[in-house]
Amino acid sequence: MNYEIKTKEYFEAFALKDLNKLSEIYSDSINLIDWNGSWTGKKDVLNINKELFQNEFELKVLDTVQYKDRTFNTLLIEMGVNSLEVIDVIKFNKDFEIEYIRAYRG
After folding, report:
1. Is pTM beyond 0.70 here?
2. How many domains does the chain have?
């Protein structure tokens, strides 16, 4: 399976702040971990996305590499005058849904 295409769809929906599309992409038991905390389940992850989406930001995907059922993504997030480099590791389940996102601040 080509998870790079699904990853691109995910980042497009994220950049557009499209919670409905993200809900379709996330598994019910998704787990999100970043430097601010950990969230489990679609409802909790969508809620934290909704909070983040109150901010203006620009998301640039610099690189995506697929290995088995995971993609490794280098991102640049610009919020006003602040830039943040991030590496997202995204794991997909057998239904082609995102079941795990681990974000590393770089």
Report:
1. yes
2. 1
